Amino acid sequence: GCLTPLRNTSTTLDNLLKSYDIRLRPNFGGQRLDIGIELIVVSFDAISEVNMDYTITIHLNQYWLDDRLSFDSYDVSSMTLTGEFAEKIWVPDTFFANDKNSFLHDITEKNKMIRLHDNGSVVYGMRFTSTLACMMDLHNYPLDIQNCTVEIESYGYDMHDLNLNWKDGRSSVYGIDNVELPQFSLIEYRTVRRIESLSSGITTVLTMTTISNGVRSSLPRISYVKAIDIYLVVSFVFVFAALLEYAAVNYTYWGKRAKKKFKKIKDTQPMIQDGKYNSVDFAEIDEIRMSPIIAIRSQGNCAENGEKISRTIVASPVLPRNCMSRSYYRENLVRRKNSSVKRRRQLNSNVREKSVKCKLPRINLPRINDVNCIDRYSRMVFPLLFVCFNVMYWVFYLFVKKDT
């Protein structure tokens, strides 16, 4: 008694396949066959901007009517069979036109099934993972919204033979709701107050460069400018401008002292040439440092021939200190004066030649008496400009660009 339904079902299947021709579609030679499509999205696995594709795992169910598979049975109204039965009947040759790579899940068995109803309607379902191409427009990246499609077609039949349509309209595609990337939730956060030392300057420049290279490597090589490129370039400009501001402050502060010293020496040169400075003043200006001479103090007059005395000064430590030093200073001052005059003449001639060769238009820069004012203005101007840039950037890409 218990084996009767099983025998009847097996007999029914055998009878269905006896005169069944797998090579011919249902309604062959008549009106076209309607195929209902249903997609159930199991998971949204990955999105690759570099390869411009995305990977999803889906259930694909196909519905059609095959009169050759209708049966009369008092025991069952439908039969669910394994995927192996699909090799014995006609099934649609549907494929994904934008598919790059797909595989059918086979743990623990091949994820395929056939369901037959007594009126001849057939349900053919399978579960697989597919990587599909998606031509992305990255002008607004990373604030972009992409429209990626699943393109289902028949490989061999045209529209006169098959008509693919969604089984239940827009509700034929369903699965996970509210898919968001990245898929995480902020559960908890905490803040700690402490004194922190921040490394800036060249470290920040290197950080911005590293971020830019990372973004560039994670995106395809495209010819147009992306939204993230604009943001990173402007941020890099702000960081580099901060370095220039630091250099300007240092140059202004330390350059003032050098200019004052150079001006003092320049002002004294005409007076030296006119003879208004004596030998001692000239020695001070040229920063001549005389070696100290240690001699024994003794009473006596100076020799008339100071030159002879100065030549024997090392060998005659008993000479009077005042006579020896006077003749020694005179010789050294004359020698150093002649060499310094030659150097000044050569330097002045070189300066005149360079000024004639490259005479640039003079730019009068505003005089800065206090270098701290540069820092004070920078602390106001830099954040204000960066805030203005962010306001315009986010308003444009979140509202203006999104609407267009």
From TrEMBL:
InterPro entries given in the database record: GABAA/Glycine_rcpt, Neur_chan_lig-bd, Neur_chan_lig-bd_sf, Neur_channel, Neuro-gated_channel_TM_sf, Neurotrans-gated_channel_TM, Neurotransmitter_ion_chnl_CS
GO cellular component: chloride channel complex; postsynaptic membrane
Organism: Mytilus galloprovincialis
Domain Neurotransmitter-gated ion-channel ligand-binding: 11-197
Lineage summary: Eukaryota, Metazoa, Spiralia, Lophotrochozoa, Mollusca
GO molecular function: chloride channel activity; extracellular ligand-gated monoatomic ion channel activity; transmembrane signaling receptor activity
Compartments reported by the entry: Postsynaptic cell membrane
Annotated transmembrane regions: 230-254, 381-400
Predominant localisation class: membrane
Stated family: Belongs to the ligand-gated ion channel (TC 1.A.9) family. Gamma-aminobutyric acid receptor (TC 1.A.9.5) subfamily.
Residues in Neurotransmitter-gated ion-channel transmembrane domain copies: 200-394
PANTHER family for the chain: NEUROTRANSMITTER GATED ION CHANNEL
Entry superkingdom: Eukaryota
Keywords noted in UniProt: Cell membrane, Chloride, Chloride channel, Disulfide bond, Glycoprotein, Ion channel, Ion transport, Ligand-gated ion channel, Membrane, Postsynaptic cell membrane, Receptor, Signal, Synapse, Transmembrane, Transmembrane helix, Transport
Protein's membrane topology: Multi-pass membrane protein
Protein name: Gamma-aminobutyric acid receptor subunit beta
